[in-house]
Specification:
It is built from nine helices and two strands; from the N terminus they run H-H-H-E-E-H-H-H-H-H-H. With 227 residues, it is mainly alpha-helical. The protein has two domains: 62 residues, Orthogonal Bundle (Arc Repressor Mutant, subunit A); 139 residues, Up-down Bundle (Four Helix Bundle (Hemerythrin (Met), subunit A)), CATH 1.20.120.
């Protein structure tokens, strides 16, 4: 991504100066694949882009490093972290562990209106016009699925892992890893089990849902090895 290109922000940041705002904006840009693996996030350039001093940018980059999205290199350079197949698979395995735990905790607390909204999200995903819209709806589905878990730390860890996988899917979206129709059917099976009060079945369906994405990732790397 060239220094002159605009990041995918909606409107101007209007000189918001907190590092949290910058973290959110850069995290979104990284997750959407707008920065290449190994690309430098120069503090001076980012400060100019956001209209702030280097201090909040530096703080934001530290937070992104803690999340594993960037890493520090020699001479104070900060670059977007590359993704190996082993790391992607590890992330998906961790997601399966955390998200099934969250679902177990949340399932009995989901209200009828929650289930209605999950059903509506499934319909919206069926009708999604493009992959970016589908990814946004998919994120909302999973967020709502775990919203009643009362496990904020686990949810935050799960979100951080999801960002890494989402970034990967954006970067490889033209290579066949997207599987929206299959995933939509899996979402409906999870929801159906919850509607029937079958929590163990819902948990099994969720495990299978994440495992199928894992299988597609393996197929992709086998077909298109990444250095």
């Amino acid at each position: 991504m060239s220094e002159s290109m605009e990041l995918p922000f909606t409107g101007q940041l209007q000189r918001r100066t907190t590092s949290d705002d910058i973290v959110d904006a850069l995290r979104e840009a990284i997750s959407r694949g707008h920065f290449k693996e190994g690309e430098e996030l120069n503090q001076v350039t980012q400060a100019r882009r956001f209209g702030v001093s280097r201090v909040p940018v530096r703080e934001a980059l530290r937070q992104l490093q803690a999340e594993g999205l960037v890493s520090s290199q020699a001479h104070m350079r900060t670059v977007v972290t590359g993704l190996s197949v082993d790391r992607v698979l590890e992330v998906l395995d961790l997601r399966a562990m955390l998200e099934t735990y969250l679902l177990e905790r949340a399932a009995s607390r989901l209200s009828p209106s929650d289930l209605d909204e999950l059903r509506s999200l499934c319909a919206d995903m069926d009708a999604a016009a493009d992959h970016q819209e589908w990814l946004t709806l998919n994120k909302s589905f999973h967020e709502l699925l775990y919203s009643r878990s009362d496990a904020d730390l686990t949810r935050e860890l799960s979100r951080q892992l999801a960002v890494r996988v989402e970034r990967y899917l954006h970067m490889r979206r033209d290579s066949g890893v997207q599987r929206t129709e299959e995933a939509n059917a899996e979402h409906r099976r999870i929801l159906s089990a919850l509607e029937r009060g079958q929590v163990d079945e819902a948990r099994t369906e969720l495990q299978a849902h994440i495992a199928h994405t894992r299988d597609r990732v393996i197929q992709l790397f086998e077909a298109q090895p990444v250095d």
